[in-house]
Amino acid sequence: MGPADRFLVPVLFLVSCMVLTPRSFADTGTDFSNAGGTLSGTNAGLSLSGSTLVAVSGFNGNGLITGDLGTVTFSTGALNSGGSLTMGGTFAGGGTFMVTGNGTKGVPNRVLFSGSFSGSATWTLMTLANGTHNYTLTGVVAGTMGGTSVNGVTVQLTVNTGTAFFDGSTSISGGDTTLEAAVPEPSTLTLMGTATLFVAGTFRRKVLTR
Fold it and tell me: To 5 degrees, how large is the angle CA 51–CA 52–CA 56?
């Protein structure tokens, strides 16, 4: 089993624990993918800046669009007691979450989604077999997109921090945010499973091409 497969085991286990509904977001949802940028923070919260919007799918009924399409930024609430920046924990809801287009390839030059974390965001340490570390931030978000109330899930994967732990700042390898019109919670779990699998696949491809 290679390093990418070792990474996928806990991710796939997380997905298998979710109660997925038959409804798929693919018919009605919008997907935003981002790459790069700096994730920084303290116990007061995490924030992402300088991350590029690299793919949009389903926005205004359009198919997949890729390229340098805009930016993704966010901030979380404070770290809950009992957690730590190095070993993982949960950050309180609130903060901000914004996806902004830059007018490229038909993506509007404006804010595409504006919202916040509607619940706690989970900060998870993953130690690979070679002793190096990755972190993921997973949270439920809610806000407005094109004047419509939407909710969904974001999953953000950091670059490998080597044998060191998160020390207040690191880069984002890739992230995915899936949104659809506000619906009951089970559908949000479907979005979480899809977004987690997307980021897992992205990370696996990066590992295998090294």
Answer: 130
